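Q: Predict the assembly, please.
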Amino acid sequence: EAGVTQFPSHSVIEKGQTVTLRCDPISGHDNLYWYRRVMGKEIKFLLHFVKESKQDESGMPNNRFLAERTGGTYSTLKVQPAELEDSGVYFCASSPRQEYGYTFGSGTRLTVV
Amino acid sequence: GNSVTQMEGPVTLSEEAFLTINCTYTATGYPSLFWYVQYPGEGLQLLLKATKADDKGSNKGFEATYRKETTSFHLEKGSVQVSDSAVYFCALTSNTGGFKTIFGAGTRLFVKA
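A: Predicted assembly structure:
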């Protein structure tokens, strides 16, 4: 089966610009998660979708971040406007059941300059 | 709240040496425990998991035993190879944490030939 796909793999943008990251989960996985790792620190939870609904968005840092999951399939994470501290690696993961462990995508490395 | 603490790296070993990466956790409820690995240039991969006390997860020669009495899930391998060089993340998912996964900070392992 195809894995979790994320694109772009790398993005370099200027402060104040907008960037949209995309994640395609494994087909049939209702649970989709966004995480990020900033400056080599621990991987932090951003939010969790169950199908198209936001189950938990307690990790979203501020209102510059907007996540959507159209029709319960792929998801996008938009950062607008981007700030320097948003630089890091953004991971998407999916799972058929929450307690099974995740399948991660390769991540998007975002650099804001 | 739930948390995971793992030993700081980097850890540098010679090929065929014994590996231990310590991981302890704090959680309410009945967490499932995981080790994820990130090889250079790749995304996170689930390495092994254990879902209840005294379970042993194993994969690719790595093992970890869920120790409830010491709240630990140490990762071990009897003989490491250069190809094991990667970053290893200990993680937990708890039914009382909304099932989102909490990660440790990661431990970088270098194995020299």
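The mean pLDDT of chain A is 92. The two ends of chain A are 37 Å apart (CA to CA).
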